[in-house]
Amino acid sequence: MSPLPFPSPAFISTISPSFLFRHPSSPFRFLHHLKILGKNRKKRGIMDANFVLVRQIPPGIRLLRAARGRDWTLKTYRYVILLVTFIAYACYHASRKPSSIVKSVLDPDPLNQPLSGNDPYPWPIGNVFIKEEEGQNSSIEGSSRGWAPFNGKDGTSKLGEIDVAFLSCYSLGMYVAGHLGDKLDLRLFLTSGMVGSGIFVALFGMGYIWNVHVFWFYLAMQMVAGLFQATGWPSVVAVIGNWFGKRKRGLIMGIWNAHTSVGNISGSLLAAAVLSCGWGWSFIVPGAFIVLGGVLVFLFLAPYPEDIGFTTAQLMATDDNGQDVEGQNRGEAAGNDGGGPVPGPCGSGLRTSVGLVEACLIPGVIPFALCLFFSKLVAYTFLYWLPFYLSQTAIGGHFMSVKSAGNLSTLFDVGGIVGGILAGYISDRLKARAITAASFMYVAIPAMLLYRWYGSVSQSLNIILMMIAGLFVNGPYALITTAVSADLGTHSSLRGDSRALATVTAIIDGTGSIGAALGPLLTGFLSTRGWNLVFVMLMLCALVAGLLLTRLVIAEIAEKADRPIPGGKQGHEAPASEPLLGNLK
């Protein structure tokens, strides 16, 4: 068979999707040539505006287009992207929370009584605090004696090992997932990760149904779940960075980042609500929810604006003057007759990506990654161990139930929602991400100290101090993992159309996740010697996190004072504030 004629970029740019669908054999010939052309041009380092790709519009959006008879505006699409990614990552975090809720069931403290069943309704409908009543039987099967292999003398340590296994695989998988996220279709990549996460989270809970008491089973389920969970964060941050410019990015991402706390809260309440049915259901139900979230992503997520026909120029014009662009008009201008794929500049199908080493060399990536190592260590220690700490600590002279401890721990995340929004807003107003993040970390030190000293005095004081600690602990964590990662992922040092959003996000959050794995592991050992040691560790980590941003803080202060940094030239790391201060042009 003679080779098919090779199309030129100019020829491809003139092809209308309606022509392709009127000729059944044309799409296959066209895509065959396009694949070869893309490989050859990528090898030569050629990328121009004329090179386009026919992309798959998400099926849910295609169905809504057909039902409505017209397309959405750019503003509406942005709302949809915010909502879909918000739900997606809330599902991720909800599926991580059950392990912290069931710790006291798997490894109960013999000095405390089991769960009281007086209040049939979970918080916020029922009471936050449910006092333990001596001599009352538990409604959770086997909770008074725990669950082998976690109810022995080394049970607390094994629970810490389970956490570190999950988070270690999560952090290592993050580096690979971020690089893949800049190469693959983010919609399919994220969907696969959510479905895989749900399956293995549910399998962990099936250990209760199947009466499994082998430690390696639970360890293996958590490790595989950690690998699938690594697909989430680089993907959702990359999608948001693709759809939103730097104008008000800190505030937008601060509000959007509430999905972390919303996921933690919903996961805690959901796991606590079904705990009386058996601790395994606290994993199975959240696992089913994240699978449903994956279906939502598959149906409605468009990773790039170009995937549905919007151009970069239209996005920038909308950001600059606030004018919206109507999708159908835009589609007609692109030569689309109202249905099927829409051609446009490089979207999900073909974008040049950068390597891990090149992404690490972007100014500011390493300092923020190291800062997040210690910041996330603090945040995830609270995430995994706060319910256990509350159930082991007398508050107002009373110990609380496992269910009540899970309910109360959600208030830490309520403070975290306020902290994320406040940090984003302040950093936008000051145009200083490093100053904002470092300041929050320094204030978190006395906040945690006050919580440890006075949190046990009364119930009301515990709630107030917990929310304040959550505000300052989660504020910089949210800022660095969202706005800062997106800023650095679109740094001006990147060449041409190269994008490093998912890769940079993976480097920063992957490094932070190593700290997140270390914190719960250390807590498992230190808590056996007293909780004071745990809080000392957390305060030292918060101090180090703030100090690691010192050079960037000095650079931002010097830039605001309009004077050079002492010592002459700023050096290689000085431009780190450039993506944080500059406008997207």
TrEMBL record:
GO cellular-component term (any): membrane
* Mode of membrane association: Multi-pass membrane protein
**Major location (coarse):** membrane
Q: Which residues cross the membrane?
A: 188-210, 216-244, 256-275, 281-302, 360-386, 406-427, 434-454, 460-480, 500-521, 533-554
Q: Where in the cell is it found?
A: Membrane
PROSITE patterns membership: MFS
Region (Disordered) spans which residues?
321-341, 565-585
Cite the GO molecular-function annotations of the record: glucose 6-phosphate:phosphate antiporter activity
Q: Which InterPro entries match?
A: MFS, MFS_dom, MFS_trans_sf, SLC37A1_2
One GO term of the biological process aspect: phosphate ion homeostasis
Residue ranges of every copy of the Major facilitator superfamily (MFS) profile domain listed in the record: 83-557
Give one Pfam family: MFS_1
Keywords noted in UniProt: Membrane, Sugar transport, Transmembrane, Transmembrane helix, Transport
Record's family?
Belongs to the major facilitator superfamily. Organophosphate:Pi antiporter (OPA) (TC 2.A.1.4) family.
Stated name of the protein: Major facilitator superfamily (MFS) profile domain-containing protein
Supply the source organism for this entry: Linum tenue
